[in-house]
Design goal:
Strands 12, 13, 14, 15, 16, 17 and 18 form a 7-stranded mixed beta sheet that branches. The protein folds into 3 domains: 35 residues, no CATH class; 238 residues, Alpha-Beta Complex (Dipeptide-binding Protein, domain 1), CATH 3.90.76; 217 residues, Dipeptide-binding Protein, domain 3 (Roll), CATH 3.10.105.10. Helix 13 runs antiparallel to helix 15. With 555 residues, it is an alpha+beta fold. It is globular.
């Protein structure tokens, strides 16, 4: 309740009996005005529809279950908010559903002071009776790390980010201090903790809605019928066809929602997406083919934005399986791939050769490291030394969809297959539907697979810990299933160290171990291109991968 309102109520109470009726009327008017001023007015949003031609169907809208930008775009940054948000134009975080926060002196506690007056979405399946508060934060995070949480038991799921980032073990308590204050307690210092709180998995859910679902025996609907506080309100999802949203006219960020409707037209074929963009059937499209960039740039009805991608496309070897547990085999396979030919053919000039397990724009990147030379003869000799003089046969998985870090996984797989044939390695190319591909890969069913990563929060831990740490092996994002203690100890030490110079030294040593052990072969960092219709205003490329619609309008 605001200070002005409190002051006027006190005046009312002190007024006594004289002119009580007049005071009551005046106070009622003042209180009504104060209540209105303390809430978020319904926004005047233009009556129009923004159409986004997306590349794939999201597997659901419960972001903690997933780790791709398909779900992050459809859910985290469209439907939800987080306690803090990553800055798009520099390092660090900015206020979100938490207006302020304070770490303890020892770095083991973080206290968040929550924003008041934030409303959850009203939908056909949920009508909130209260505003966002501390109960929602406690519910959101407790179910992620407590397997005995009632909602987790009713809807048991794995949360890859929570495991990969070490949070499942490190967050020991989330407590409600009061209705608008929440305190997190950690087992050990986690220097990039605030950045992690800005990631999609940390999107805040409604505890009231969760209790309704539990009561009705429909806990799984949290993934299918989402409720958030974000800029758009879910209306309908037709898998492989469309997702429909309404602009949130009660959104707490003033003037952030500038279209009344948002529609995802799910269009897996990049050529068809471009046709729709040219025909004005969509205003924004995802992931153009490299071969189309010149034509898009020349089209007067289109805009083309671009920036250096904060990403990495790579080939992961499942080191939990033979023969990939043999270092000489991994080195041979890596050395036999003509990576520069892949850059030329797959990325069409929009890619940069990768050597490290992170992009060059990430602080602590070790510039001194280089790739092993392309040397098929030496590769064949290494295979013989490893006991595979007569060659090898195994499956090579190729993604069925285009991603920012890999515009054509099938072509890349075919080129790698041809390179390996020259050293006696026979790779059978395998693929699955995207959701099934990821599910099986997380479970470690692959031999070798093409995959990639776009940085989530600007910290080296997002690459070295999430993609290569021991905590990320079981159902996490360590697709190499590689747990190497000397490497893992360095990464965990860096995570628990505040001094950036010390952290950099630890991460550079970890990168050197990576190059020695070759758990995966880095292939490329790609440039990100974003085509738009000419009448789209206010669009910004998110360096962390998702497509953002907050602040976007149509002329």
């Amino acid at each position: 309740m605001g200070d002005d309102m409190n002051r006027h109520i006190a005046q009312c109470l002190r007024a006594g009996t004289r002119k009580r009726a007049l005071h009551f009327i005046l106070c009622a008017s003042v209180c009504a005005w104060a209540c209105i001023a303390g809430t978020h007015a319904v926004a005047d949003v233009p009556d129009n529809m923004l159409v986004y031609c997306s590349e794939a169907s999201p597997r659901g809208f419960d972001d903690a279950q997933y780790s791709t930008t398909v779900e992050a775009t459809a859910a985290a940054y469209t439907l939800y908010d987080r306690l803090v948000e990553l800055k798009l134009d520099g390092p660090g975080v900015s206020p979100g559903l938490a207006e302020d926060w304070k770490p303890s002196d020892d770095g083991l506690q973080y206290t968040f002071y929550l924003r008041r007056g934030v409303k959850f979405h009203t939908t056909s399946f949920f009508h909130p009776t209260r505003e966002f508060n501390a109960d929602d934060v406690v519910f959101t995070f407790t179910r992620l790390f407590d397997p005995e949480h009632p909602f987790r038991k009713a809807y048991p799921k794995d949360f890859p980010y929570v495991s990969s980032l070490g949070l499942a073990k490190n967050i020991t308590r989330v407590e409600k201090v009061d209705s608008y204050t929440v305190r997190f307690t950690l087992a050990q210092v986690d220097t990039p903790f605030l950045q992690k709180m800005a990631m999609p998995f940390a999107s805040i859910l409604s505890d009231e809605y969760a209790q309704q679902l539990l009561k009705n025996g429909k806990a799984a609907d949290i993934n299918l019928l989402p409720v958030g506080t974000g800029p758009f309100v879910f209306r309908e999802y037709k898998p492989d066809a469309t997702i429909s949203f309404d602009g949130n006219r009660e959104y707490w960020r003033a003037h952030a929602v500038l279209v009344s409707k948002l529609k995802f037209a799910i269009t897996p074929d990049a050529a068809v997406r471009l046709q729709k963009l040219k025909a004005n059937e969509c205003h924004v499209m995802s992931l153009p083919r490299p071969t189309d960039i010149a034509a898009i740039r020349a089209n007067p009805n289109l805009q083309l934005m671009s920036q250096v991608g904060f990403n990495l496309g790579f080939l992961a070897y499942n080191t939990s399986r033979h023969p990939f547990d043999n270092l000489k085999v991994r080195r041979a396979l890596d050395m036999a791939i003509d990576k520069r030919a892949i850059i030329d053919s797959v990325y069409q000039g929009a890619g940069q050769l990768a050597t490290n397990p992170m992009p060059p724009t990430q602080w602590s990147y070790d510039k001194s490291l280089g790739s092993a030379p392309f040397d098929p003869a030496r590769a064949k000799a290494l295979l013989a030394e490893a006991g595979y003089r007569d060659g090898l046969s195994f499956d090579l998985w190729a993604m069925p969809v285009q991603r920012a870090y890999n515009p054509n996984a099938r072509l890349m797989a075919e080129m790698i297959q041809a390179d390996w044939e020259k050293i006696g390695v026979h790779a059978h190319i395998v693929t699955y539907e995207w959701g099934e591909y990821l599910k099986r890969a997380h479970a470690g069913e692959h031999d070798a697979l093409l995959i990639g990563w776009t940085g989530d929060y600007g910290d080296p831990d997002d690459w070295l810990g999430v993609l290569l740490g021991c905590d990320a092996v079981a159902q996490g994002n360590n697709f190499s299933k590689w747990c190497y203690k000397p490497f893992d100890d360095l990464v965990k030490s860096a995570r628990a160290t505040a001094d950036q110079e010390t952290r950099t030294s630890l991460y550079m040593r970890a990168q050197q171990i990576f190059k020695e052990q070759v758990p995966f072969t880095p292939i490329a960092h790609s440039t990100v291109y974003q085509p738009l219709a000419r009448n789209v205003n206010g669009f910004r490329i998110d360096p962390f991968g998702p497509t953002l619609f907050m602040g976007v309008s149509l002329k």
